[in-house]
Amino acid sequence: MTDTIDQRLSDLGLTLPQAAAPVASYTPVVEAGGMLHISGQLPFRDGQLVTGRLGDGVSLEEGQDAAKLCGLMLVAQVKAALNGDLSRVRRIVKLGVFVNSTPDFTDQPKVANGASDLMVSLFGDAGKHARSAVGVAVLPLGAAVEVDAIIAVD
After folding, report:
1. Residue of 18, 20, 152 lying closest to 86 (CA atoms)
2. 114 closest CA partner among 41, 32, 18
3. DSSP letters spanning 58-72
4. One Pfam family name from the record (predicted)?
């Protein structure tokens, strides 16, 4: 599956970033009982954090792109945790999507689609998952979106 995922990334014109180091006292990935629990990942483009608030200067499309960037970082964390072997991924079980948004912004599910659609594009049926999409008042470092995940692996 690693070759397949790499090919799908290439076909989509995407590359995985370097897996980000933690910014506080936690580990990016914990494997327990055949599940990877991946800490919340932030959106980086060209090494720069995507910041801002949906409903106040950040468009829906920019939010979806930020969620997609979080998804790419999730895959990078998985690849690092599995020593480069994405063939061990069996299912994207759940995504938790946190959207830095104003109180009147209600399109968090549409923002979350940026990450969700990426998982399906990369992993096919195994990328279909349960999900929560939540609006929050602020995210670490002013990030526009944060996404965490639970992933079943061999």
Report:
1. 152
2. 41
3. E-HHHHHHHHHHHHH
4. YjgF_endoribonc
Q: What distance separates the 2 farthest-apart alpha carbons in the chain?
A: 43
Dist CA 104 CA 118 (whole Å): 27
SS3 107: coil
**Domains, in order of start, for the chain:** 2-13+33-153 (3.30.1330.40)
Amino acid at 92: I
Reported as a single tens digit per residue, the pLDDT across 75-133 is 999 999 999 999 999 999 999 999 999 999 999 999 999 999 999 999 999 999 999 99
For residues 34 and 152, the answer to whether their CB atoms sit within 8 Å is yes
Position 26: which residue type?
Answer: Y
- H helix intervals, 1-154: 2-11, 60-81, 108-123
Question: If you search the block for the tokens 């690693």, which residue do you land on?
Answer: 2
The answer, as to whether pTM is greater than 0.85, is yes
Distance CA 123, CA 91 (A): 8
Q: Is 77 helix (H, G, I), strand (E, B) or coil?
A: helix
Distance between start and end Cα atoms, the chain: 12
